Amino acid sequence: MITKSPCDLPGLSCIRCLYSCHCNQRDTTSKKCNNCWCSFVACVCLFSVLGLYFVWSIQNESHNFNEYAFRFIGVWFNWSVAVLVVFIILTSYSSVLLLLAFCHLAAHEQMNLHWIHKVLLFLTAVIVSLFIIYLDLKFSEQWNTIYISLKVTAPFIHIGVVLGFSFLAWLVTDTYYRTKKIVLKIIVVDAYLAVMVVLYLIPLVLTRHIVPPCLTNKIPPKPLLVGHRGAPMLAPENTILSYEKAHNYNVIAFESDVMISLDGVPFLMHDQNLKRTTNVASVFNNRSEEDASFFTWTELQRLNAGEWYLKKDPFSTASSFSVEEMERIRQQKIPTLVDLLKTAEKYNKSVIFDLRKPPANHAYNSRYINLTVETILNSTINPELVLWLHDEDREKVVQMAPGFQQIFGGKDGPVWDKAQRINFPYNNISAEKIEDYLQKKVLVNLFVIDKPWLFSIFWCANVSSVTTNACHIFSEMKVPVWHLAPDTYQMIWILTDCVSCFIMLSMFLLQRYCSRRTLRAVDHDNEVLLQRLHQHLA
Q1: How confident is the model at residue 522 (pLDDT cuts 50, 70, 90)?
Q2: CA angle 319–324–328, rounded 5-degree value
Q3: What confidence score (pLDDT) does residue 21 get?
């Protein structure tokens, strides 16, 4: 006679069916490899969670990733969202499977993982591995972004891990009560308690080494905003409409990319060719892959720079536009540098741009800097509104246009001694270096930041300004996405540890209750069998 334990799980047949496809029968065959598969489920689940975290962390680069994919595939699609959805599915699947495995362990079922799950778990591990390898080979700088994201998520990850491990006390105490060997009992309990003590003390390391900037008593002034190619979430990038939209959200500067046409007209264009942001394929169907610098200004004026935006909808914002806004977008043309300067002068905004050197066989290959500086000086804009970023022949530019504000870019490292402004990728400068520059009264601009959590990090780090596609979002933010006073975080840390201890104690007491009830049930069954045996013998 088999007595059901008072602590058996309800719906066990359904759990067994989902995990091992043995719906109505309990498999009592013991196989050592089954426990190995359980460990494999746990490892794949952890691996997929890690992959999902990586994908989430680098979503700030989603537009750059989509541009990168377009250059190779030739089809515009929001690949970053597709990758995120895939990893959500993989993580959800492996997490549910791990939960079912824990239910099997709690119910003392054999861990007979179905072969379909084995295949799917293996594919999950392969997909995550390939993604991490690709990330390391093609976008290795994003490891710094992942490290930065930990400064936001580490306190919350710590809380989640502590509570998650607390519930594992059910399996630990179950092993403790069912194991007859004293040594094994001591090893299991001591190892578990040692892990919990380490988890409890992690904030001591967290606040000293990772140092989340948003754990602060005082919020610094909000960073100023620079419109990256204008406001490309609201209008086609590098168009006058885009810069007008950026002005509406109080940016201090317009950022752009300048190329030189075949006949010497500086114009605004980011990509090396015109395929992504114009209708060049329909106007010049055999020149869509040609370098944009080999088009004359007359030819460039024939192109439309707005229709692509409504068709491709790069930021998934087109549905929010009115009919009038859509019509204005359709009418956009490629602007010249002079057009940008006039717009900046009109709204009293600074201008900063990446100047692209023409190809070697271009007529202005050796004169493009002189041509650009002369174009600016011949305009009516105040030279102090020009933030000169281009490094080549900088000293010559200083002599030609002493009124320009020199801003130094590149990776974190030594800059010119006279630098008063620097322009760095956000993932190549540390909070300590930012503080060092600010103490020297050097203004720090970081690019390109689109996610509120990332903006909040550098807000708390007291950065001077950020270049962004999301000026309409950041301009509305009154405070960082999250910030905590160190004392408040300490209280949350202590409260989490107390809740964890309560959970572990509850698990211990409940398992002891279940163990005693099971023993009494077994003793009762034995007494019934003995009575029947005596009656039979009598």
Answers
A1: low
A2: 95
A3: 61
C-alpha span between 118 and 526 (Å, rounded): 41
**Long-range contacts, stretch 382-388, CB < 8 angstroms, 24+ apart:** 382/345, 385/344, 385/345, 385/348, 385/349, 385/350, 385/351, 386/350, 386/351, 387/253, 387/350, 387/351, 387/352, 387/421
Amino acid 223 reads: P
Instruction: Give 407's DSSP letter.
Output: -
d(CA 223, CA 250): 12
Give the model confidence (pLDDT) of 232-274 as tens digits.
999 999 999 999 999 999 999 999 999 999 999 999 999 999 9
Asked whether the beta carbons of 362 and 262 are under 8 A apart, the reply is: yes
Note the pLDDT of residue 229.
Answer: 97
pLDDT band at 207 (very low <50, low <70, confident <90, very high): low
- Check if the beta carbon of residue 356 is closer than 8 Å to that of residue 342: no
C-alpha distances in Å from residue 394, one per residue of 203, 222, 357, 442, 478:
47, 31, 14, 19, 38
pTM of the model: 0.87
Does an H or E element contain 329, and which? Answer: helix 323-330
The Cα angle at residue 468 between residues 464 and 473, in degrees rounded to 5: 100
